[in-house]
Specification:
Length: about 130
């Protein structure tokens, strides 16, 4: 059987507060029922910063500003979607900080966001950054 690849591109934010990392639980796609960083794909004509801010607000209810680019990574995994058998996901990661004024968290987001201990993961991510 021949593999048919779907290429996905996204921008994702790392927001840390009180030594915890904000994550969301994915409800669809290849990462369904897994925790992930807030973010997603740019819309038509949208730059990376705009996409990051929009996706963060949609998924967490928070307004953020981009700080530092941490790195870029790609992932390949099996995923049956439309005529595709696999996905090749390219991701750009940024550190973000929250603006003092935040959006109200809509009810649709309740239970989807979570604070995770990040000490080990952050060290690992920074170590990975130097090898990218």
């Amino acid at each position: 059987m021949n593999n048919s690849w779907h290429r996905a591109f996204g921008v994702y934010g790392l927001y840390v507060s009180n030594d915890k990392l904000l994550v969301i639980r994915k409800s669809r796609g290849p990462y369904r029922n897994r925790y992930d960083l807030p973010g997603g794909s740019p819309e038509e004509g949208e730059g990376l910063t705009e996409a990051l801010q929009r996706e963060f607000a949609e998924e967490t209810g928070l307004k953020v500003i981009r700080k530092n680019q941490i790195g870029t990574a790609d992932f390949k995994l099996p995923w049956s979607w439309k005529q595709h058998t696999h996905v090749h996901h390219i991701a750009v990661f940024y550190e973000v900080s929250r603006l003092r004024v935040s959006l109200l968290c809509p009810f649709s987001l309740m239970g989807r966001t979570r604070w995770a201990q990040h000490g080990y993961q952050k060290k690992r991510l920074y170590r990975t950054r130097h090898h990218l």
